[in-house]
Amino acid sequence: MYEKEEVPSLSTFVSGLGLDNAAPSSEYSSNIIVKSLPILGRLHFVKDRNGILSLTFTFLYWVYGTWCGLVVVLLPHMRDKQASEPFVALYVLCSVMCICALFRAATLNPGRVPLISEKDNIDTSDWEMCDKCQRKRPKRAHHCRRCQQCVLRMDHHCPWINNCVGEENHYAFMQLLFWAFCLSWMAFWSLMLHYWYYPACITCDKESFEFIHEAWFTYILTALAIFMGIMMGGQLIGQHFSLLLDRTTLENMKDPHPDISTIRIRSEWSAYREMCGSGSMLFWLFPCRSRKVLRPSYFYSSPV
Description:
Helices cover 43% and strands 9% of the residues. The chain is mostly helical. It is elongated and about 75 Å long.
């Protein structure tokens, strides 16, 4: 157990976090792989076949949307001086932010309930025992059957990122929803300009594969952009109101009609600051930032 920081994060209580998998076997479930890599840092990955297939599909959707939106639609029109360079740069920005957010959401520890000891000085008198993994956990933690571990303030298990959405990666999941929403509607408006406003491409190679099959490529991208734009927008709205009400998706499913007197409605600032952590809000949408946790009252009872 290493030395505690002045404002501890959840990872403070996890022992044996070296540059290899030297942590005690009881620290992680058999479905979790944890690796520390140069530059990328500490990665958390779930060994679930269906989840890996879903994550692969999500990645391939991003590849197709980026390739078709740029190579088939925007770059030819930019060469013809029809599409503006700032518009194309904005599309690239949304695409890069989207894949970075996907990587972060899929590989961050969602908030695994750590092993604790008496030395940690944590009051666990109001904690409960998980009947599946036989580990003490805070009241708002939930056991995920796919990850086979308890997750702090677990919102849900998302197969499309092959990971749980919990206390420590909820902000990355929200970033993914936001940037996927932006990329989908950027693709949609690019296609609308391509169909109805931009003239036919002049400089395109008429014998190229993408030009010959251009219609089918753009039709598929149009359907995907509309579908994903609506889905991501709906998810963003639902997650936004759940944050304001301080409820998780699992809590909403378990008790869809709660007692109004028990609901705590928070301001947008306090809700998003708790989720995103301390630091400037200018960087809340930046996927590569590290989250500086605020002290969650439902976990820490007697901090040192």
